[in-house]
Structures
1.
Amino acid sequence: MTRPSPEPSGDDPPEPDRPDLSGPDPAMVFGRLFDEYAPALHRYLARRVGTTIADDLVADTFVTALDHRHRYDPARAGVRPWLYGIAGNLLRRHVRDELRALRATARLVTERHQDGPENRVAERLDARARIARLAAALAVLSPDDREVLLLTSWAGLSPVEIAQALDIPAGTVRSRLHRVRRWLRASATTIEPAPALPEEHHG
């Protein structure tokens, strides 16, 4: 006869990705969180705003998380999307600089592609053209669409984790990803910035 599994009790230890941050001495917990999540978070942020700003944003993310640790609810979300949500809020302060950098990259790479010496190898030109297309496309996307795309492509978050990080329904995340990827595929052959995405209809 199969014995039923024991019911979880309040004494069970928290899951590793859903730690209890409300204890009186959070230093050990946050030290582990920093060691585990800071490197990947830094790589994600550095790809968007550069290493120097990423250094500051990672530090600010964990300081903010520590200050607001009592707001974290492990029943609602894992700690990774919670940290990315905090980082995303901090990152929005740099959106204008990010857009200027993306547009500058698209313009610079396109100019080098057009004016470069004729003896450059085709592979290098193709790589520059791809960078220009990507930068131009990212600059055209709305902030919401760009954040969803980069959280999945660069940070490796799942749609459910992105939904938790941004506090939106997972269905909205999947809809945005599908729409943005379809638009990117359609505009992948152009170097100039593509037209803006159509309005997203809700209902």
2.
Amino acid sequence: MKEFNEKLKLLRKTEGYTQKEMAKLLEIDPTNYQRYEYGKVSPNYKIVKKLCSAFPEYSQWLMTDNDEYMPQVDPHIKKEAKVEIDKLG
């Protein structure tokens, strides 16, 4: 069973984001995001909610023990999301 931090890293890499981009999307410091991925701390409810809002297709997978569920996302949607992140910075 994958831990939340492992799933978070897999989600990020699958979607083609850097840690810095994910931190920007979640409106947190990049160092804090790194701590989530390394499993040093767990994100609070607010951060998990933002993750699930930003990546609704992954919310079930992130929040359960089911390692087999991994959504396939249209590459066009990924590109649109990346553009939105770029607008933030």
3.
Amino acid sequence: MVRALGLVFSARKLGNSYACVNYCLEKMTHEGFEAKLVCFCDYKIEPCNHCNYECFSERIRGTQESCPINDDLPKIYQEFENSDIVIFGIPTYVGHVPSLFRIFEERTLGIYGFGRHMNMLEGKTYGFIVPEQLLHSRRSHAQILWLQFSNNVDITEV
């Protein structure tokens, strides 16, 4: 069975990003997909801080060390790894992606290490839901996210 994962990075429990991702997952479930919704606001998630660069240890010290932060992010990465389809619900706040998304992005290297953090992205189908209001920006965050992912992973535009 094809597994779909919805990742909602909003700090608002039932905000627009949640509603949009949940709608997609409900439609996918109706079509026979196995679907799971993960709202980052329901988990203990911490940013990188006060470490000794354990994620870079192999390159700088020749030792293999792990991220010292003990939170729920590894559980979410496990869900990510076990999914075939990932739908990101990423709101914008004052023209920026939320800190929960930045933490997810930043901590990937610390949890997976060099090389492997890029491998976890390959072989999946991605969807991005980015509710935003364009005011003074020349590029939307949806466009920026698309560029970021398309530079790292072979993505076919549909």
